[in-house]
Amino acid sequence: MPSQSVPVPKLAPEAGRPAATTAGQGAETAPAFSPLYRQIKGLIIAGLQAGEWRAGEAIPSEMELAARFGVSQGTVRKAVDEMAAENLLVRRQGKGTFVATHAEQRQQYRFLRLTPDPGQDAGLGRQLLDCRRQRAPAWIARELQMRTGDAMLEVRRFLHSEGTPVVLDDIWLPGALFKGLTTERLREHRGPFYGLFETEFGVHMIRAQEKIRAVAADEETAALLKLPVGTPLLSVERLSFTYGDKPVELRRGLYNTSHHFYRNELN
Amino acid sequence: MPSQSVPVPKLAPEAGRPAATTAGQGAETAPAFSPLYRQIKGLIIAGLQAGEWRAGEAIPSEMELAARFGVSQGTVRKAVDEMAAENLLVRRQGKGTFVATHAEQRQQYRFLRLTPDPGQDAGLGRQLLDCRRQRAPAWIARELQMRTGDAMLEVRRFLHSEGTPVVLDDIWLPGALFKGLTTERLREHRGPFYGLFETEFGVHMIRAQEKIRAVAADEETAALLKLPVGTPLLSVERLSFTYGDKPVELRRGLYNTSHHFYRNELN
DNA sequence: GAGTGGTCTAGACCACCAC
DNA sequence: TGGTGGTCTAGACCACTCA
Questions:
Q1: pLDDT, average across residues A80-100
Q2: In chain A, alpha helices (H)
């Protein structure tokens, strides 16, 4: 005998589901009704955030989660479905559900939309130029939701294709989250930075916004990318977020699009 | 008594669900097993493609569709869920499920990622420059999957913000699909082109790919956009598709990104 | 064969909308 | 008041993986 007033056991008190009618009170702007499966999703995200399961590890099976939260498997399934659609989790039939990671081959460079023209080599090499601790200037502090002057890491690097530089990246990170990150650590690391950030610092990028413009190469950039001053470059400014919509990385890439392009899918 | 061998009535013969085990035969590369809900999805898409329901109209209720296809409501729901996630359909609680359209206010300029800098006016005006019938050159024919020399429409237009031109668009369309499209028709039309294409020609854009580069303004472009020759511009090449992954529009925009940027969300 | 996710069903009740 | 989509449950069986 299914009944919607029975469940909601082990949920946190404030997560209690509003009963039958959306009765009075109506305080503030929105009653903020949220279905059970969304509350479950919130609890799973809280677990990820708390580090209960690390990147690449399996989370408990749907049946286990259903038992733990006191809901049916179908409700857990719907929560996990949404999280899989958002690339927070990865389902593998017969094996389990895993915390998404940037470290795996299949998922590497998930956020990089740069694509070589036909006939170009697909692989991109990395070259670290610089990594130093600075005090955050106002505009970066604003983006990363820290205070002007707070500790900040500044990284500069190349991506190159067959020896010629294609991308010049400047990367800014909150110093508080990346204590102990050094030039050597970055240089020794194999694979994408985001993999390192996950395994070494527990910082997991789940979403990003990019703002793209066309700009002219200034003298410094032109010299570094071995291009004439004034060459049109793609400026890609990326703000990346972890769980809880917390911004944790600001990045500005300058792309030489002579033999590569930025690919985007619209739906 | 649910049983997975019972259903599958009114489905098209070739859509029949493979029974229990993925038995022998194994011809070619993939057995191409597809679950019931995906077959239902295919049938609904076929209906859209055939014009059974037009853009903006409601499709039958989930119960009706379930009865028609001889499956449970839950299976129809899963099919519709996927289509809603792909922006093919729009669900409205209490009202029904509707064929997505580019004509509505809410959905207008769904594919336009150009965003004004803070303080800039958000609205963009349109100005038609030209519309003529041509023969498709090889490179366009290839993209639109037609033959070189086939009839093709070529449209050129501006988007401008507060009087100054921001975007110069060249648009190429297969002549066969847009018979009767004239300069006057385009000029008189209010709202986005994609709305006109839907209502007048039954061509519905559901998906697009963009390739983005930074380029320097040539003389003609510079004059049209009132910029110095060599100004860096964002080149946005868009290929749009209808049902069945059929390409039906090629477009190349040159964006002045001095006071606007191209916004993208990464997941 | 046991365990995991994937599909499908059937039925209940809720929230929203229009008449 | 009746219809629509939205949520939740319970249970069956299938497909895949691994020991």
A1: 97
A2: 36-49, 62-69, 73-85, 138-143, 183-188, 193-201, 219-225
Q: Say how far B79 CA is from D16 C1', in Å.
A: 23
- Cβ–Cβ < 8 Å for A213, B230: no
Domain at B1-21+30-100, CATH from 3.40.50.1970, 1.10.1520.10, 1.10.10.10, 3.40.50.300: 1.10.10.10
CB A49 within 8 A of CB A243: yes
Whether residue B28 has pLDDT greater than 70: no
Q: Which nucleotides of C are covered by protein (CB under 7 A)?
A: 3-18
DSSP letter assigned to residue A244: G
The whole-number pLDDT of residue B16 equals 36
Write the pLDDT tens digit of every residue in B195-247: 999 999 999 999 999 999 999 999 999 999 999 999 999 999 999 999 999 99
Give the closest-approach CA distance of A264 to chain B in angstroms.
Answer: 5
Q: How far is B221 from chain A (nearest CA, A)?
A: 15
CATH 1.10.10.10 residue window(s) in chain A: 1-21+30-100
Pairing of strands B114-116, B260-266: antiparallel
Q: What is the pLDDT of residues A187-220, one digit of tens each?
A: 999 889 999 999 999 999 999 999 999 999 999 9
- Residue B27 pLDDT level (bands cut at 50, 70, 90): very low
Put simply, the answer to whether A238 touches B214 (Cβ < 8 Å) is no
CB contact under 8 A, B215 and A212: no
Q: What are the tens digits of pLDDT across the range B61-76? A: 999 999 999 999 999 9
Separation CA B169–CA B71 (nearest Å): 47
Q: How far is the CA of A94 from the C1' of C2 (A)?
A: 11
CB-based contact A267 B87, cutoff 8 Å: yes
| Cβ pair B65, B39 in contact under 8 A | no
Q: Mutate which of B114, B206, B212, B233 to test chain A, going by most A C-beta atoms within 10 A?
A: B212
Question: Are the Cβ atoms of B266 and A214 closer than 8 angstroms?
Answer: no
| Statement: residue A186 has pLDDT above 60 | yes
For CATH 3.40.1410.10, the residue range(s) in chain B are 114-262
Measured between CA atoms, the residue of chain B closest to residue A258 is B213
Locate all alpha helices (DSSP H) within B32-182, ordered by sequence.
Answer: 36-49, 62-69, 73-85, 138-143
Tell me how many residue pairs between chain A and chain B have CB atoms under 8 A apart: 99
Select, from the ranges A106-120, A136-150, B175-189, the one with the highest average predicted confidence (pLDDT).
A136-150
Cβ contact B261–A234 (<8 Å): no
The predicted-structure confidence for B106-143, as pLDDT tens digits, reads as follows 788 899 999 999 988 878 899 999 999 999 999 999 99
Nearest Cα residue to B228 out of B200, B202, B256: B256
- Superfamily covering domain B114-262: Chorismate lyase-like (3.40.1410.10)
Residue B181: what pLDDT?
93
Q: How far is the CA of A96 from the C1' of D18 (A)?
A: 12
- How many angstroms separate the CA of A82 from the C1' of C10? 24
**Chain A nearest CA to B264, separation (Å):** 5
